[in-house]
Write a structure and sequence with these properties.
about 220 residues; alpha+beta; Outer membrane lipoprotein wza fold like; wza like fold; five-stranded mixed β-sheet; three-stranded antiparallel β-sheet; 4 helices; 10 strands
């Protein structure tokens, strides 16, 4: 059957459109590949072995003054980093270890009672802002989590609830604040979806995990 000139034109346009879609898809794949290759892979071992916890704003601490229960209290650390306990007002807690804070409170109480024995315990943890691990982008629950000794990327992502359906897990980036903001590529899809434990890496205080959205 002989085709009309109009039918030939329509088939040509459709064929050209298919080629255009393939070219665009290839360009996007190449772009994604170049983004993934833009950063070196994160080092698998980067633990902070000498890390000591510092009290942060919104932590809850328990101050125990032995033999003086009326002076003991469980109090939140205010957003300004300070706490108030009986006979001690507005003492800076944020950025100090529990042992350092207990010594300071003991020195302040020694002005009014004899030989106080003070212990500070942290009941709930947020940590100082500069040491929190931040997860942003296509995580199920983007948030900041306190760093703890020997913490890994898998620990962080469990707390963030894993990836969304739209996440480009293998295009994720780890930004390391302790190295002046140096960026590393991380393979979250391999780690969480495929169980590739070789994709698990240590995290350090102040790390940021950025999870982009997948193009398709």
């Amino acid at each position: 059957m002989k085709l009309s000139r109009r039918t030939h034109q329509q088939r040509y346009v459709r064929g050209y459109a298919r080629v255009g879609v393939l070219v665009v898809a290839a360009s996007l794949l190449a772009g994604c590949s170049s983004v993934m290759q833009a950063y070196p892979p994160a080092p698998q071992r980067a633990a902070t072995t000498d890390h000591h916890y510092k009290i942060g704003p919104l932590d809850t601490i328990q101050v125990v003054v032995w033999g003086n229960p009326e002076l003991s209290a469980t109090v939140p650390v205010r957003p300004d980093g300070r706490v108030s306990v009986p006979l001690v007002e507005d003492v800076l807690a944020a950025g100090k270890s529990p042992a350092d804070l207990s010594r300071e409170i003991r020195e302040l109480l020694a002005r009014v009672i004899r030989d106080p024995v003070v212990t500070v315990m942290v009941n709930s943890f947020q940590g100082v802002y500069g040491e929190q691990i931040r997860i942003v982008g296509e995580a199920s629950r983007p948030q900041s989590v306190p760093y703890r000794q020997d913490m890994t990327l898998l620990d962080v992502m469990i707390q963030a609830g894993g990836l969304t359906d739209f996440a480009d897990g293998n295009g994720a980036v780890l930004v390391r604040g302790t190295e002046g903001g140096k960026s590393y590529s991380i393979r979250l899809k391999d780690l969480l979806k495929r169980g590739d434990i070789s994709a698990n890496v240590d995290v350090k205080p102040g790390d940021i995990v950025i999870i982009p959205q997948s193009w398709f």
